[in-house]
UniProtKB/TrEMBL annotation:
A single MF term (Gene Ontology): L-tryptophan 2,3-dioxygenase activity
InterPro entries registered for this protein in UniProt: Trp/Indoleamine_2_3_dOase-like, Trp_2_3_dOase
Organism: Panagrolaimus superbus
Domain of life: Eukaryota
One example of a Gene Ontology biological process annotation: L-tryptophan catabolic process to kynurenine
Name assigned to this protein: Tryptophan 2,3-dioxygenase
SUPFAM superfamilies per the UniProt record, alphabetical: Indolic compounds 2,3-dioxygenase-like (SSF140959)
Length: 220
């Protein structure tokens, strides 16, 4: 299979624009026992015994083994619960990427004099964040393929679990600059009350006290 990126060749509309007027060369004639060098591969990566594989690099054994269905634990597996888990795990992964990028932008802006040579990088990271947020909104369309009755089938097994308990979402709100008085309360509680561990509280307080993206942009 050829490289899907058309490595080393410029294409336009599926046509090699550099050689579109040239006649294709006939295949080379090989002597007996001779090997066609074109089949040896271009830029082929040599795999050593300790080489990193796709599976190892992405830690797929961990990633694909963390979809534990509560309905299955009860002996009554509900197929749509698997979708529900995947959707929300995907949200959390994208939240992690957004936070990573926003933190980098905040670091670049949180200076007495902002380095103008970093403007393109800042704009690029913010544009990426916008695109990810649009993608997350579109994921709702996939979730809508699950009917309310399907959701009710397994919701009882989730007990008090709620999206309001997403730590990364709260961190993202704080880092962007959402004010406390603009929040929707969960069971009339302060948003921090649903988090229990010292690490969670420490991260939340840090995200509240550090300059938000909104404040840093205002200063600029």
């Amino acid at each position: 299979m050829a490289c899907p990126m058309g490595y080393g060749v410029r294409f336009q509309g599926g046509v090699d624009i550099e050689h579109e007027h040239e006649q294709p060369l006939p295949p080379p004639k090989l002597d007996d026992g001779e090997v066609d060098v074109s089949q040896k591969g271009v830029n082929k990566t040599t795999m050593f015994n300790n080489g990193v594989t796709y599976r190892d690099y992405l830690q797929l054994d961990k990633l694909l083994d963390c979809q534990a269905m509560k309905s299955a634990d009860q002996g009554l597996p509900v197929p749509d619960e698997h979708l529900f888990i995947i959707i929300h795990q995907t949200y959390e992964l994208w939240f992690k990427q957004i936070i990573f990028d926003i933190d980098h932008v905040r670091m670049l802006l949180n200076n007495t004099i902002v380095d103008e040579t970093k403007t393109l990088q800042i704009v690029s990271l913010l544009e990426r964040t916008v695109r990810i947020l649009k993608l997350l909104a579109e994921q709702i369309l996939i979730l809508e393929t699950m009917s309310p009755l399907d959701f009710v089938e397994f919701r009882k097994y989730l007990t008090s679990a709620s999206g309001f308990q997403s730590l990364q979402f709260r961190l993202l709100e704080n880092k962007l600059g959402v004010k406390n008085d603009h929040r929707v309360k969960y069971n009339q509680q302060h948003y921090r009350d649903v988090f229990r561990t010292d690490k969670e509280m420490e991260d939340l307080v840090d995200s509240e006290t550090q300059p938000s993206l909104f404040k840093l942009v205002e200063v600029c």
